[in-house]
Amino acid sequence: LARENFESYQGKHWLAPRGLWSPSQPGARLREVYLPFYVFQSKITVHCTGEIGFVKERADSTQSTSKEKKKEKEKEVEVEWFPQPEWRTIETKIYDERDPAMQVYGSYKYRRELAKAAIVGPLVQQCVPVIAAHLAKHEADPLNMSEEVAWKLALRAVHTREVAAFRAKLKQQHSTDLVRNVVVHLEAVKQTHKKVLFPAYMLDYSFGKKQHLHGLDAGKILPDRYQ
User: Fold this and answer.
1) What is the DSSP letter of 177?
2) Residue 54: count of CB within 10 angstroms of its CB
3) N or C: which end of the chain has fewer CB within 10 A?
4) Dihedral (Cα; 79, 80, 86, 91), 10-degree rounding
5) Around Cβ 105, how many Cβ atoms within 10 Å?
6) Model-level pTM?
């Protein structure tokens, strides 16, 4: 199923490599891994402010540069901006461990964009805890990110989401597409956190070739490796 899902994804992107399981690509390998994640639950109060704008048209009488020297009317588009009064408290809500924003990859082994594919959302309760028995039995990345750093990344994800939500709310409430200087402040209380392992399939494959400039393979043209 994992292989079929990957091939379906590749098929939707015309620049993606094809035929990774063909005889000409013997290096493709699909393996089971466990990725360590922090999952948090937090009570967060959201405070927002920003400015909304409305377009107004101003008609100016100007002297024409043509030989006839006729007067013409030129319309100049202006935007009038209205700051929102002080801070607006949107709501206080619970971000629990099922929310993808509260699920943070806790290792530096892979790129964060790659690890995001393993986020399970509501299925987090089916994940296994980080204990020595599981680490010894399965291929698992080290949990080498501190809890403090993971918590900051979780709050960054919440902040990004709330900025987009407040911007959309201002546009809808005031019937305008012009919004600027949106600022969101979060009051967050971290209630709980867990360390769990997310199951995933990792694909290692070769595609194309490149010349290596450094190390033991300097000067050699070898297959380029990807994950």
Assistant:
1) S
2) 13
3) N
4) -50
5) 25
6) 0.73
